[in-house]
Amino acid sequence: MPDRIWIEEVKKREGETVTLKGWLYNKRSSGKLHFLQVRDGTGLIQCVVFKGDVSPEVFERSGKVTQESAVEVCGVVRKDERSPLGFELGVTDLKVLHSAQDYPIGPKEHGVAFLMDHRHLWLRSSRQHAVLRVRHEVIRAVRDFFDGKGFTLLDAPIFTPNACEGTTTLFSTEYFDRRAYLTQSGQLYNEAGAMAFGKVYCFGPTFRAEKSKTRRHLTEFWMVEPEMAFCDLEENMDLAEEFVEFIVQRVLNHRSQELAYLKRDLDVLQKVRRPFPRISYDEAIDLLHRQGNDLPWGKDFGGDEETLISSAFDRPVMVHRYPARCKAFYMKNDPEKSDLSLCVDMLAPEGYGEIIGGGEREDDYDRLLAKIREQGLSPEIFTWYLDLRKYGSVPHSGFGLGIERAVAWICGLKHVRETIPFPRMMERLTP
Amino acid sequence: MPDRIWIEEVKKREGETVTLKGWLYNKRSSGKLHFLQVRDGTGLIQCVVFKGDVSPEVFERSGKVTQESAVEVCGVVRKDERSPLGFELGVTDLKVLHSAQDYPIGPKEHGVAFLMDHRHLWLRSSRQHAVLRVRHEVIRAVRDFFDGKGFTLLDAPIFTPNACEGTTTLFSTEYFDRRAYLTQSGQLYNEAGAMAFGKVYCFGPTFRAEKSKTRRHLTEFWMVEPEMAFCDLEENMDLAEEFVEFIVQRVLNHRSQELAYLKRDLDVLQKVRRPFPRISYDEAIDLLHRQGNDLPWGKDFGGDEETLISSAFDRPVMVHRYPARCKAFYMKNDPEKSDLSLCVDMLAPEGYGEIIGGGEREDDYDRLLAKIREQGLSPEIFTWYLDLRKYGSVPHSGFGLGIERAVAWICGLKHVRETIPFPRMMERLTP
Questions:
Q1: Å from A294 to nearest chain B CA?
Q2: Beta-strand relationship, A278-280 and A317-320
Q3: Is the ipTM of this complex over 0.90?
Q4: Between A and B, how many residue pairs show a Cβ–Cβ distance under 8 A?
Q5: pTM of the full structure
Q6: Distance from CA of A284 to the nearest CA of B (A)
Q7: Are A131 and A161 contained in the same domain?
Q8: Whole domain around residue B50: which residue ranges?
Q9: Which of the residues A183, A197, B99, B253 has the least number of beta carbons within 10 Å of its own beta carbon?
Q10: Where a domain ends, among B98, B128, B154?
Q11: Looking at the structure, do residues A210 and A290 belong to the same domain, yes or no?
Q12: Contact, A388 vs A191, CB < 8 A?
């Protein structure tokens, strides 16, 4: 038998006879020819079965092979300018390894609920391949970016002992004789890490039990969170924009075929270049008022406001210094205006909303303790976190980027549900 | 002020005056000299304060600075052959940014419980830096290995709808109006991924609610799991040994300083070269009996047996074809001897036990359904998993490697608790 290769390798095998193993993706026939689209996960290739080239049995078998049947195909690799791959296979032999009957996902349109119920099979479609390859590229870019800058990966724990900011959006589990909560963010642990390793990041799944059925919400999503010692809000924004530029340009360079398949407007992504606009919350409020949105000063932005603000710019915009009361207790207040918080949100263009949230952390023991008390939280829970302000406290900052929202934006998808292999939402826990 | 740099950058700055920001790790004085060990997370440098070089205030301040105080140090980078870094700093100025009082972890020995209670501070020690940098390197190696071979990263879900193999070792949570379980393995989902992408891996935290207080158990641990279509047990073992060799050699090449700090016997690691010995369960039983262990055929190995078996070899050993009754329902039975399973465990040397478990999966619909029923499981739960055997089923295999056990072995640690930033064990959920 000729060498068995993956479809991704055919470009190195022009003119050679090879064996491919994969699944029938699509098929059409015309008289003496069957055109079989075969996929093996690394690519899709057109396999041309010409009646004159094969035995009568192989020709007949090729005409009968059903969608998603597993096949082994032998043939000669030939240049084919019209195909995205650049090559096709001139078939000399074909075996059916496993015949699939009535594959549920046909070429016709299916409803989203049906596709989600068949997610384990839907993953075989070219569209899902494109989205999930972009996801993989984003994740590689994230790691390369931080590893290349000398950050240490410090995985934050998933099980946390306390419901730091209320239990309403937390999942919890019995943990032997007590309760544990599933993390919503690794940030507090990251701060301990930054004091130990200077520059750290964590990257793992996080959980929110929000009763939201919007296109932006998953109960389980992946988040990367860098945290840096000796870093203020400005330097934090510098890093955030460099980071987002890096990811977007990486995907443009490495996944252009996937973006093309998704019909993504590349111009929009090509504009994602530093510097990104930076406006204060106050300036954002002015902008909203000029656009006819009358959100009063002091309120946090919702989806409508985020869309209005980001529409004013051709690249991601960073909004900094929100009213402190909109933000979590650990944010440092602006020394120049103490009702403001030294925080930043990055809003993606085209209405994709917040993709990054971060800021400078409160590094003073007494002020942090006062804020914990003000918010009615129990200081005992935060003993270890307060310790970080007792022993060598320094200015430090960080942010979090949600992978699924970033992938949805980069791919130009309406809903985050396709950006993760097996999405989990309020109404969706299967397959 | 001179350029502020990270300690990792001093080697490019010989002879220059620079500013470092960090924390005081250790200190000794002798007359006109203070030797301050300063760490900033990227390295540790000796800062020499000579009375003749600085103002009286700076000299006095340098003598009083306490452990883990945050400092800013200016000085000239000088070659120093005796230090692991190769350089020291000739101090010209020193500021104390934040003075730490009574840092709890002193140079004296502390008990493990005390250190674990202060894990957020213990992370600052050189030993923890060494272990967690090796962990980071292992994780990078894992991703580079699979990315380099064309695998697609396909994150498996953490929330799963069913307790597939009994609830005794599962954590569960209320999931809106139903129950969800925390994953113990991404394998079943990976199989759907392999049929879609050919070669996939997932890499994330997994959870076991085992009531075990051994040195090998965590309730939350990270696992990488590759899964390949068109792959049998032999090819699976080929990949597993190439993978483990790759990781170990990478750490040897990139983290030799950390391994030296941990006093790891490098000879043992250098021997981790392919091919690894492969023995059947039957041969392993013979080996045990010859060593005086009388485990009867058909029983799974415990820690004692694993240690005895692995001690017979100078590199990891792969034990394949266990009795089918020891293994999970999804394992394919050996067609040559149907009471055996086409599975493999890799045992690390020096008594570190199983670091890899895997095998070839049952790919026949009827046989899989029968096995599900035999084990008293409900076929309805596995409808989607059975679908994979209805539509283009092909031979496929995979394995899982637990990161913490691998790091413990590579670092030569007795207990897995130091191999993860914030370990979670039966009796440990804090900080």
A1: 35
A2: parallel
A3: yes
A4: 244
A5: 0.97
A6: 34
A7: yes
A8: 7-98
A9: B253
A10: B98
A11: yes
A12: yes
